[in-house]
Amino acid sequence: MSSPNAESTAFRSALEVIRAVEPRVAGAIAAELADQRESLKLIASENYASPATLLAMGNWFSDKYAEGTVGRRFYAGCQNVDTVEALAAEHARELFGAAHAYVQPHSGIDANLVAFWAVLADRVEAPALKRAQARQVNDLTEADWFALRRELGNQRMLGMSLDAGGHLTHGFRPNISGKMFDQRSYGTDPATGLIDYDKVAEIAREFKPLILVGGYSAYPRKVNFRILREIADSVGATFMVDMAHFAGLVAGKVFTGDFDPVPHAHIVTTTTHKSLRGPRGGMVLCQPELAEQVDRGCPMVLGGPLPHVMAAKAVALAEARRPDFADYAQRIVANAQALAEGLLQRGARLVTGGTDNHLAIIDVTSYGLTGRQAEQALLDSGIVTNRNSVPQDPNGAWYTSGIRIGTPALTTRGLGTAEMDTIAELIHTVLSQTTAGANADGTGSKAKYVLDPAVADKVSRQASELLTGFPLYPTVDLT
Ligand code: DSN
């Protein structure tokens, strides 16, 4: 462990160097730390990376082009990039028990695009090349190439719908995934809010997708990946899981057996910055038969890899392999459950009635609000969340009817279940004292709201007081 002094010195010195060139950037960086220290962050997809992870990103690796893979680059002089990329991949394989890890994706969307194209290359392009006795696409005749392009653009994907908690890259029409694939969605049972596996199987039998996607960004329950794999197998689909939100819970062995996607899926994608607590970025894990296609991610789908971020991924993944990470992951879930329980006890309505992961979705229509109104009222009160659709949302994807809350960040700060109950009280106070506003013509507004500023100020002060006991980056002193 480095000394606290070393961390303060490192960040202070970095700011001094930046300040000498563009003081406004140095000021904004310092202000961001101050803002993060003061805000009660309940955004389920955010966290606080360690000083070592942050520092691994600010260095000379940023200057290097490294298209290709370890030992097989399109540029000379990549020996040090090879070192960090190989380390990140090794840590990822060990941490998740994966056969292969590809650590170049810049984000979760990039990781999903790499995965989609790896499956398309394996299941559509490779057989077409074989039929045409061609080694690669440049060897195809114009007619064969035209036919292959049509075939690649006419494949089916089945994923969880956005309003049920799926991600926009799982086939939402405005996203590239919805445009690339002939797409269908599975939702959740209207009565319970839970995935109905029989229904998924029924849609899969009828639709026969090439890819079945599991995973979510706003579903508060465990998913049985063994059952989804059986469904995929029964229709000949490749099973892909996007574990971006809950990768930290898989790494920390909260989700094991049927609930760990890695042994069940052909291919798994993730971000590295959410519950996994690494740098902003993405990653793909896969079975050996897809490894070669996955490794073509750059330059097939991705621009040049970010070696400085791969260095930080290696650091964060090494941290996640330590025993204390499992304790952290358990505390994330205990906190989410305590927060959910605190809200339920005060009369809030939660999608599925609770949580068994890191997040919960408050259905704010029970407070007479839209998600947009609730999000803003909470923000006025020093509580940072994001609005989110609920299943069959009557207010659509912009205004929404839900508020998504998550505990990875506050758990990193050290808050525990007692503090979660206090936070539930603060959230309930704000939501129950906010009313929907009206437009100038007297009609109801989905955006305007009325909240007594004295209530917002009081809650803000209480939130700040709560956080003073849990300093963020206590080893970093910029003064
Ligand atoms: N934007 C992320 C989230 O908040 O869930 C997913 O892409």
From TrEMBL:
EC primary class: transferase
Annotated site (Plays an important role in substrate specificity): 273
Catalytic activity: (6R)-5,10-methylene-5,6,7,8-tetrahydrofolate + glycine + H2O = (6S)-5,6,7,8-tetrahydrofolate + L-serine
Pathway(s): One-carbon metabolism; tetrahydrofolate interconversion; Amino-acid biosynthesis; glycine biosynthesis; glycine from L-serine: step 1/1
Keywords from the named record: Amino-acid biosynthesis, Cytoplasm, Methyltransferase, One-carbon metabolism, Pyridoxal phosphate, Transferase
Positions where N6-(pyridoxal phosphate)lysine occurs in the chain: 274
Stretches assigned to the Serine hydroxymethyltransferase-like domain: 20-122, 154-427
GO cellular component, one term: cytosol
UniProt binding sites for (6S)-5,6,7,8-tetrahydrofolate: 162, 166-168
GO terms (BP aspect): glycine biosynthetic process from serine; methylation; tetrahydrofolate interconversion
Protein function: Catalyzes the reversible interconversion of serine and glycine with tetrahydrofolate (THF) serving as the one-carbon carrier. This reaction serves as the major source of one-carbon groups required for the biosynthesis of purines, thymidylate, methionine, and other important biomolecules. Also exhibits THF-independent aldolase activity toward beta-hydroxyamino acids, producing glycine and aldehydes, via a retro-aldol mechanism.
Protein name per Swiss-Prot or TrEMBL: Serine hydroxymethyltransferase
Biological source species: Micromonospora costi
Lineage of the species this protein comes from: Bacteria, Bacillati, Actinomycetota, Actinomycetes, Micromonosporales
